[in-house]
Specification:
One of its GO terms (molecular function) is metal ion binding. This is NADPH-dependent 2,4-dienoyl-CoA reductase. With 674 residues, this protein is an alpha/beta fold. The protein folds into 3 domains: 240 residues, TIM Barrel, CATH 3.20.20.70; 138 residues, NAD(P)-binding Rossmann-like Domain (Rossmann fold); 108 residues, FAD/NAD(P)-binding domain, CATH 3.50.50.60. It contains 22 helices and 27 strands. The strands form 7 sheets. The protein has an 8-stranded parallel beta barrel with strand order 3-4-5-8-9-10-11-12, surrounded by 7 helices. Strands 15-14-13-16-27 form a 5-stranded parallel β-sheet, sandwiched between helices. Strand 3, helix 1 and strand 4 form a beta-alpha-beta unit. Helix 1 packs parallel to helix 2, helix 13 packs parallel to helix 22 and helix 18 runs parallel beside helix 20.
Length: 674
């Protein structure tokens, strides 16, 4: 038998009364299925695939112990005996594959998105319109009992344990930190008083469930907000939790309101394993490292260097349910790696939509997006090897169709080849590596450097033709647009034409932000964690509460104006969980982000604009046009006229902001039914 490349990752973990088959914990992630009608059947299929894929321990999305702690008005709770049966569907399916599963108990406190929220003090969260009411002593004691009741019901539902959510700025975290706890009774003031709530919860939960039940505590090791924990407090609580009978300590990083990115794609891999390592030194129970651990190599390094006893992966297991099995088979190159884009997972959850995954549209749709062998095998031509064409071609070939994939470029990837050049988006290389491997496995016949004509395709005797030809940049009608210092975004990102020191970027959508990032960044910090931490003001010496210090902004090699016609906030259309990071990045580099701009004319000296009723000449060396795209579907009508069956997917179908999430889903869905 071949020796594993990941011996530490695949090593069992003995918890005394039970054993985990490996060191991979699937981290808690709300999917939205918890609240859908019939959602628990779909949730069971979702977790079953991850258990079958080799995960050792799964933690569910947050389930409230009572009504007031719900994340949203109709959020899930585990508080009544009749809640048990639907959870049993999940646990039964997971246990078929030797995995274990814990239910996360989460009381949202002031993060509850409804008017019935409670918190230690009546301080409104900056990310929530609802101001919480102060918890009375009686309500605190009742809530502690509700945690214990919820854990006991989870045990009855077949869960192997629970995770008590004590981080990310939720209720327990709110009691622990002076930022949100202004109480003067026995639940506030000194740290001994502030940590009374989690310790009482821990003790009563252990009492209700007995010794042979996993209790994970998600400990906020680095709050990244003012008036958060000190390191001494983190260690004191960790040791007290050990005394109270905790089984595993899981790391929590950052509150949801923190202004430091913790999980977006520009965060370096394993950027926070240092704090897990620091806390682990003081504890004897197993400790879990978290955040931006998306490959078995990173995970193995963390474990082999004794930074942690387990690694938590949440989004990487949305991206590829088989991640652990592929690692065990020494096939990491076949893993569909999470690119930390958040577009289909967290952005969906925060918009009250079902979570999924940009690179794996089957995530959370396991019972609906089903790929089965084709009964009628066809000859299919796919024109365009961008995300939509790649997803379609590979899925169709998996089903048994003969697929020819054409692209006029000399490499696969389409627009991803430009995106991967943007500082902070290096992970996009991984998706193209994955598709290249999948092409080999599925037998797609790739023909690069070949532009196609309707006549040529008609001569190929194809049963179906799929146009995934993507987009072309939309031109803007401004006098002087033909001047030589005017560039398109492809001139910059594809052709690498020289760009001067002063630049106006027209169009502040995703591409405008990407081009501005590209033009203002000399060195990507995604691969330099110490420098990245300095840049964002993370104090690794932990001298201040919350682990924050003064950020060190990067200097920009250029002066950039990012302009848009719309009166809305610049960057309003960016993702909810990542847009603020992009805006903060550009602001730190002194990029001027201007809205309500009227473009009068481009002249050799720059561009004449009007803003706030004043006309001015913006003196710049170059103007870069990022004003949207149009679909490239020139072949469609000719093929229809020739009697061909034609399908449009991706940008060729809808050319709104370059949308890889929709493109990959559309390609996969069409291939599943063609």
């Amino acid at each position: 038998m071949t020796q594993s490349s990941y011996p530490k990752l695949l090593e069992p973990l003995d918890l005394g009364f039970t054993q985990l088959k490996n060191r991979v914990l699937m981290g808690s992630m709300h999917t939205g299925l918890e609240e859908e009608k019939g959602g628990f059947d779909k949730l069971a299929a979702f977790y079953e695939e991850r258990a079958k894929g080799g995960v050792g321990l799964i933690v569910t999305g947050g389930i409230s112990p009572n009504f007031r702690g719900r994340l949203a008005p109709f959020g899930s709770e585990m508080s009544k005996p009749w809640h048990v049966s639907k959870h049993r569907k999940v646990t039964d399916r997971v246990h078929q594959y030797g995995a274990k599963i814990c239910m996360q108990i989460l009381h949202a406190g002031r993060y509850s998105y409804h008017p019935f929220s409670l918190a230690p003090s009546a301080i409104k969260a900056p990310i929530n319109p609802f101001k919480p009411k102060v918890m009375s002593e009686r309500q605190i004691k009742t809530t502690i009992k509700h945690y214990a009741r919820s854990a006991r019901l989870a045990q009855k539902a077949g869960y192997d344990g629970v995770e008590i959510m004590g981080s990310e700025g939720y209720l327990i975290n709110q009691f622990l930190c002076p930022r949100t706890n202004e109480r003067t009774d026995q639940w506030g003031g000194s740290f001994e008083n502030r940590m009374r709530l989690p310790l009482e919860i821990m003790k009563q939960v252990r009492q209700r469930v007995g010794d042979k039940f996993i209790i994970i505590f998600r400990l906020s090791m680095l709050d990244l907000v003012d008036d958060g924990h000190t390191l001494d407090e983190v260690l004191q609580l960790g040791k007290a939790l050990e005394q109270a009978g905790v089984t595993i300590i899981n790391t929590g990083i950052g509150w949801h309101e923190a202004r430091v990115p913790t999980i977006v794609t520009s965060v370096p891999r394993a950027a926070f394993s240092w704090i897990t390592e620091r806390v682990r030194r003081e504890l004897s129970v197993p400790v879990v490292a978290v955040n931006r651990i998306n490959t078995p190599d990173i995970a193995e390094h963390i474990l082999a260097s004794n930074q942690a006893d387990m690694v938590s992966m949440a989004r990487p297991l949305l991206a590829d349910a088989e991640l652990v099995n592929k690692a065990a088979q020494n096939q990491p190159e076949k893993i569909n790696t999470c690119i930390a884009c958040n577009q289909a997972c967290l952005d969906h959850v925060f918009a009250n939509k079902r979570a999924s995954c940009l690179v794996n549209p089957r995530a959370c749709y396991e019972t609906e997006l089903v790929v089965t062998p084709a009964t009628d095998k066809k000859r299919v031509a796919v024109i365009g090897a961008g995300p939509a064409g790649l997803a379609f071609a590979c899925t169709a070939a998996e089903r048994g169709h003969h697929v020819d994939l054409y692209d006029k470029a000399n490499e696969i990837g389409g627009q991803f080849n430009y995106a991967k050049q943007i500082p902070g988006k290096e992970e996009f290389h991984e998706t193209l590596r994955y598709f290249a491997e999948r092409i080999k496995d599925t037998g797609v016949n790739v023909k690069l450097g070949q532009a196609q004509s309707a006549d040529g395709l008609a001569a190929g005797n194809y049963d179906e033709i799929v146009l995934a030809t993507g987009v072309k940049p939309r031109q803007v009608d401004i006098p002087g647009i033909e001047l030589p210092h005017v560039l398109g975004y492809l001139d910059v990102l594809r052709d690498h034409k020289p760009v001067g020191n002063k630049v106006a970027v027209i169009g502040a959508g995703g591409i405008g932000f990407d081009v501005s990032e590209y033009l203002t960044t000399e060195k990507s910090l995604t691969i330099d964690e110490p420098e990245w931490s300095e840049r964002w003001g993370i104090d690794k010496s932990y001298q201040e509460r919350g682990g924050l210090k003064q950020p060190q902004p990067e200097s920009s090699p250029r002066q950039v104006w990012l302009l848009q016609r719309k009166p809305t906030k610049v960057g309003k259309g960016l993702g909810k969980t990542s847009g603020w990071v992009h805006r903060a990045e550009l602001k730190s580099k002194s990029v001027h982000m201007w809205n309500s701009v009227t473009y009068h004319q481009i002249v050799p000296e720059g561009i004449e604009i009007e803003r706030d009723g004043k006309r001015e000449l913006l003196q710049v060396d170059n103007i870069v046009i990022c004003a949207g795209q149009l679909p490239l579907k020139d072949l469609q009508q000719q093929l229809i006229d020739a009697g061909q069956s034609v399908h449009l997917i991706g940008g060729a179908d809808v050319a709104a902001e370059l949308d890889a999430k929709r493109a990959i889903r559309q390609g996969t869905e069409l291939a599943a039914k063609i």
